Amino acid sequence: LAGGTFRQNLRQQPQVLHPLNATDLYGNQILDQIYESLAQVDVDGLRHLPLLAERWEISADKKTFTFHLNPRARWQDGRPVTAQDVKFSYDILFHAKLKTRAKWQAYLGQFSGAEALDEHTVRFTARQDHFLNFINLAGLRIVPRHAFGAGDPNETPLARQPLGSGPYRFQAWNRGQSVILVRDADYWGRALPQNVGRYNASRLFYRFVSADKVALEAFKKGDLDLLELTPEQWYRETPAPESAKSADASQLEALAKKIDEQNAKIDALSQEILKLEQEISHIRPGVTIGESTPPANPAAPAMAPSHSAAAGNTHIVARGETLTSIAKMYKVSIDELQKANHIEDGRKLQAGQTISIPTSATPTPTPAG
């Protein structure tokens, strides 16, 4: 049954409704209700079904594509869709001023051009065989030559008042709020097999609400008929049948909450540590958090087992050590250590890193503890 208004939310307002310059998802979603292509993909079988073209032939070398238009095809102003419209829709893509010319050059630049053989027959010739040739031609959006206008293709009247051959007509664009389409009662393709039972709503009402929670509340109140939910919304904010609820689900939700709380605490501690490191670096350059300051005159120093002090003139960096502390330990200068190990920034030592000690160095016992 035909009738009613179908209301859907789009997270973002379309950038433009220009039939050739629209590149965003939402703009093309709206334009696909107004304009049509030569053929369309069957979502069930992934094969192409006739649309504006009722049939087509592909040459043996797969370089020539001939499309025969359905003689019943009509624009929404009642004029017939012709081969000249198809040729124009191809040619205008390569207009020097068109903003999206480079995009169309990438998709369709491998063809030498389009020929209108008669009122309902158009032929395209490719320079070389490619598996995307037919797909790109079949999906070409066809625009009415008589309504497009001359001059700058970016300023076509169709950018303000779209006119196509599809099942819905453009009615209004309330900037920042909504786009409204109305069902074309005279749509030529209503009897096509793939269209039977479709396009029944009298109006399509597209709202623009970017906030997911606001859109969800509108859906719950009945102000929207279709809404794309985020995974979190689907799990947390939509009601589930009682039979679907279980103790395991409750435990998982409680665990997820605890993890979120712990992550928040870790983030806060990380910020505090970073702040302290920045403060210490101004007071004692080269010292990082975790380094202890050895006493000035240890009474009875014991060798720390964590350092391989003189094993092959190398030293394994312990946690919190810096070039300054290692230089003092081996009675060498920081410059000597940096040159011997090609170290530019002495603050970036890592625990477990092995560094070379100049041969003249003498290890100094490190206090235990």
Beta-strand fraction estimate? 15-25%
Main beta sheet strand tally, sense and closure: 4 strands, mixed
Q: Which regions are unreliable across 5 or more consecutive residues at pLDDT < 50?
A: 288-312
- Helix/strand-derived category reads alpha+beta
* Secondary-structure element string: EHEEEEEHHEEHEHEEEHHHEHHE
C-alpha Rg (nearest Å): 35 Å
What level of helicity do the residues show?
A: 25-40%
The number of helices is: 10
Mean pLDDT across the residues is: 84
Distance between the termini: 85 Å
Shape call: elongated
For the secondary structure, the number of strands is 14
Order of neighbouring strands in the sheet with most strands: 1-12-11-10
Concise summary:
This protein is α+β, with helices and mostly antiparallel strands and 369 residues long. It has helices at residues 25-31, 83-91, 101-108, 133-138, 145-148, 212-221, 231-236, 247-283, 323-330, 334-341; strands at residues 5-10, 36-37, 39-41, 48-50, 53-58, 64-69, 111-118, 121-126, 141-142, 168-174, 178-183, 203-208, 314-316, 354-356.
Relevant terms:
28% helix, 4-stranded mixed β-sheet, 4-stranded antiparallel β-sheet, alpha+beta, 18% strand
Report on the architecture of this protein.
The protein is an alpha+beta fold and 369 residues long. 28% of the residues lie in helices and 18% in strands. It contains ten helices and 14 strands. The protein has helices at 25-31, 83-91, 101-108, 133-138, 145-148, 212-221, 231-236, 247-283, 323-330, 334-341, and strands spanning 5-10, 36-37, 39-41, 48-50, 53-58, 64-69, 111-118, 121-126, 141-142, 168-174, 178-183, 203-208, 314-316, 354-356. It has a four-stranded mixed β-sheet, with no helix packed on it. Strand 10 (168-174) and strand 11 (178-183) form a beta hairpin.
